[in-house]
Amino acid sequence: MKNFKLMATMGAGMEALVARELKEMGYATQTENGRVFFDGDVEDIYRANLWLRVADRIKIVVQEFDAKTFDQLFEQTKAFPWEDLLPYDAVFPVNGRSKNSILHSVPTVQAITKKAIVKRLSEAYHTHSYLPETGQRYVLETAIDKNHVMITLDTTGDSLFKRGYRTEKGGAPLKETMAAALVKLAHWFTDNPFVDPTTGSGTIAIEAALIGRNIAPGLNREFDITDWDWFDKNIGQTLKAQARSMINFDEPLDITGYDIDENMIEIAKNNAEAAGVGDDITFKQLAAADWSTDKINGVLVANPPYGERLGDEDAARQLYSQMGDIYNKMPTWSKYILTSDEEFETAFGAKATKKRKLYNGALKVDLYQYWGKKIRH
């Protein structure tokens, strides 16, 4: 099978997590801002789409070259055997990006790339009329950085955060990939209790259960590559069957999600059912201020409503203060709280062990980490 240079893309601040996921799957990686490179064949492409929890997309790096004129962009793009990747009837939109480059007009970059590929395919398929573009989707991107051109082909389709289980969302939902990142950053072991005190539509608890059960996050969906004529559908079926056989049904899990809103609890339960982990999570209606526990060595991960998100800073800080009153009396628990409020530590009443900058969409947020002193059972 042909080997490709592959690129996983992810939100800012998630690169190390994706690189670790790929290394655990046996791939050698190279990391840059917002992307991790690795090599693999079509089976590896499908496997990465199926199993990566924190990445957004898997792309094939089709071409790389330098270009300072539109002529150079056209000729070098046209020189590639696009007929090896794109069938006669392919639908192939071209996205574009450019920074610090002479070719800075993105619409022109997109148009020239498209024109070059159309010319190449028209010659290869011996047609003088328009290409039909009635078949499967092949999304391309021409990204130019410091006059270096990289043309990629997206194998994923809808972003990997779309796991297929979220039937309804709350007011300010967290992407599934971000929720998985928070669980990974919390270093939770399945023999310890896991709590999300502001669970909303249940995403963090559900992602914890998927990790605890070793359920591949892409098991309930498909990817663009599945429909391509040079991809053998049996590969996908085999890898999914293999993933199903690797689910760990025996591990006892102690995962709880709480929310003040009973409607959100119903939504969370439905989402968990759709994800196949309905029996693994206990969802209850309870205000964060009313929660307490006598369990030890737990992990708590919260994405509480923050002022910027719900428009009421005072109410958010009151909640942080109530959380601090409870959580600061739980020394064996590790607490991970995500917020954009830079005054969080003051309201919470304790300085974090560590703070990590992340992005929730375009919003800069910090993950405040309070590490527990674990007691051996």
Task: Tell me what you see in this structure.
The chain has eleven helices and 14 strands. It has 377 residues and is α/β, with parallel strands linked by helices. The protein has two domains: 4-154, VC0802-like (2-Layer Sandwich); 176-215 and 248-370, Rossmann fold (3-Layer(aba) Sandwich). The strands form two sheets. It has a seven-stranded mixed β-sheet. A seven-stranded mixed β-sheet has the order 10-9-8-11-12-14-13, with helices on one face. Strand 13 and strand 14 form a beta hairpin. The radius of gyration is 23 Å and the shape is elongated. It starts with a strand and ends in a 7-residue tail after the last strand. The relative contact order is 0.12. The model has no long low-confidence stretch (mean pLDDT 95).
Keywords for this structure?
377 residues, alpha/beta, VC0802-like, Rossmann fold, 2 domains, 7-stranded mixed sheet
